Amino acid sequence: MVENSHRTSSGDETGNNDDSEPLATSSRNIEGATNTLLAAVGERVLQARKARRLSRRELSEQSGVSPRYIARLEGGDGNISIVLLQRIAIALDRPIESLVAADDDLTSDIARLVMQYRKADAATRANVLRTLDPDMLHESKAGRVCL
Questions:
Q1: How far apart are the C-alpha atoms of 24 and 57, rounded to whole Å?
Q2: Tens digits of per-residue pLDDT, 35-69?
Q3: Angle between helix 20-51 and 67-74 (nearest 10)
Q4: What DSSP string runs through 19-60?
Q5: How is residue 144 annotated by DSSP?
Q6: Digit-coded pLDDT (tens) for 126-138
Q7: How far apart are CA 141 and CA 37, in angstroms?
Q8: What is the pTM of this model?
Q9: How far is Cα 125 from Cα 17, in angstroms, rounded to an integer?
Q10: Measured between alpha carbons, how far is residue 86 from residues 83, 99, 112 in Å?
């Protein structure tokens, strides 16, 4: 006698679908996490736009993203395109990470520091690096050859 041990698409080899509840719960968790992310990104874009005193139309013109898309994004609707979000981040003069990273004090501080560092001239950047990593100065001197 040959045993029929194929799996059905909706359960185990007996046709039982014992894992349907965990799958449904998992799907709800994913949907909830997705909605939370969309709302958070939209709020961050809105706050960054307001901080720069830009209208949606102005942000649209600077980013090449339609005002309607920006409105939906700020409202937490739709689906976020990474490419369009990058365009918006550039127009807002922010790293894209600041729009998608989880909210915490360290992330906010890092995003703010990165923005300031990007705006700084070469001498200021060098001073910042020397301040943050004093050993770097000694390492660079040790690698020099004197003639």
A1: 41
A2: 889 999 999 999 999 999 999 999 999 999 999 99
A3: 120
A4: THHHHHHHHHHHHHHHHHHHHHHHHHHHHHHHHTT--HHHHH
A5: -
A6: 888 888 888 876 5
A7: 46
A8: 0.58
A9: 60
A10: 5, 9, 17
